[in-house]
Amino acid sequence: MNTRLLCDIPIYGISKEKYETRLSLERKKYYNVIMQYSDGCDELSQMAAQNKYLQYAVWKYNQMDGFIEVLIQNWDIVFKIYMAEIKHHQCFSNSKNYYMYIPSVGLNFWTRDKDNEEIVRRILENVDLIQNNYLYKKDCFLDTTTLNNMLKHIDIKGFIEENNN
Q1: CA–CA separation, 78 vs 122, rounded Å?
Q2: What is the DSSP string of 38-54?
Q3: How far, in Å, CA of 92 to CA of 13, rounded?
């Protein structure tokens, strides 16, 4: 079976805006605690208060709850969903998530008799279907910017035909 990965769609626990709001609240709280106990005069404690949450500045690497693989298998487009086995995601945690495969019935489709616009439309419809029906947390955030850019600029039908020759 000839299988190629078309795109990975990350699933985050919260959106970027919510994450940055939580991050700023945590930074303010930590800064106030440090300044309270150091009398606000120590330069080293000011630096520590400002840099404590610097490792969490990139939200994508802290909130990933799963991902969706969009694959090409011969003439089919296949969707595979992997989600972490957690119900509540801790915002600033160093714990690892282990992803399990969630079977997705009815999302795969045959592309041989479809043109490029129809394939793109079906891919986007299936991603919306996954977001509405398969994710156990309804406030999950799917980052589809990479997928949208790829579908806008790449001829998927030509890619599939090239994959099968």
Answers
A1: 11
A2: HTTT-HHHHHHHHHTTG
A3: 12
The reported pTM is: 0.73
Distance CA 91, CA 151 (A): 31
Please report which helix (H) or strand (E) contains residue 99, including its range: strand 99-102
Do strands 141-142 and 99-102 pair parallel, antiparallel, or not at all (unpaired)? unpaired
Give the separation between CA 11 and CA 115, rounded to whole angstroms.
Answer: 29
**pLDDT digit of tens for each residue in the chain (165 aa)?**
688 899 999 888 777 777 778 777 877 777 777 777 666 566 666 666 566 555 555 555 556 788 999 999 989 999 999 988 766 555 556 666 678 888 888 889 999 899 999 999 999 999 999 888 877 666 778 888 889 999 999 999 998 888 887
